[in-house]
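Dear U.,

For the methods section draft, I wanted the exact inputs and outputs in one place so we can describe them consistently. I've listed the two proteins in the order they'll appear in the manuscript figures. Please don't edit the token lines directly; just add comments below if something needs changing.

First protein:
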Amino acid sequence: MVDAKRFRVLLEEERDRKVALLRALLGDITSVNVARQDANVDDEHDPEGSTIAFELSQASALMEQSRVGLEQIEAALLRIAKGSYGLCAVCGKPIAEGRLEARPWTPYCIEHASGQS
């Protein structure tokens, strides 16, 4: 049986990192947008415009990835609370502890993981 307490600690630590990252990214995006509002920026003709647009795009993509990761972590914490953590959501068999070490938020055993987690 999986040591759910240990994995809960790992998941809570990862959740804290994701929340901090989301806050930082939101702050970065907000500050760039505020700066752009005060400037006459034409992304097409301004030599820095494309760089700023690229950085905003990257930050937005990282935010989305972090949001998805946070949702996966919250779902794993809910499975711990319900007593189903460490069991595959497809077949119900135990997920190998090594897999949980690598991806503690996964709801799938290695057999059912392809393309899902």
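Second protein (the one for the lower panel):
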Amino acid sequence: MSGPIKHIVMWRLRGETQAERLAARTKVKTLFEGLRGRIDGLTHIEVGADISDVDYACDVVLVSEFTDSSALKAYATHPEHLRVRDELGDLRIGRFQVDYPVKETGA
């Protein structure tokens, strides 16, 4: 598949108290935003922490875009990405992912 790929991941995070969950959200956001400019082919990265506090919501969402499917595949094993995953350890208790091609829109 050629062309840009959107990579969206949502997590539920470990934490017994509101403070623990807030700290977990902040850690995930900080670590993933730290990847900006460090991985070839990663053209956009945005991390949002949930503010709804509904019981079925995920805690954090990562919205990223890659130049193509090869760049996304390389990201999966990139040392910086693996470092972030290792630093998060078992903080994540649920993970959901969607990858899809970005359609170019004409002006």
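Candidate sentences for the figure legend, describing the second protein: The mean pLDDT is 94. The domain at 14-97 is CATH 3.30.70.100 (Alpha-Beta Plaits).

Thanks,
Y.
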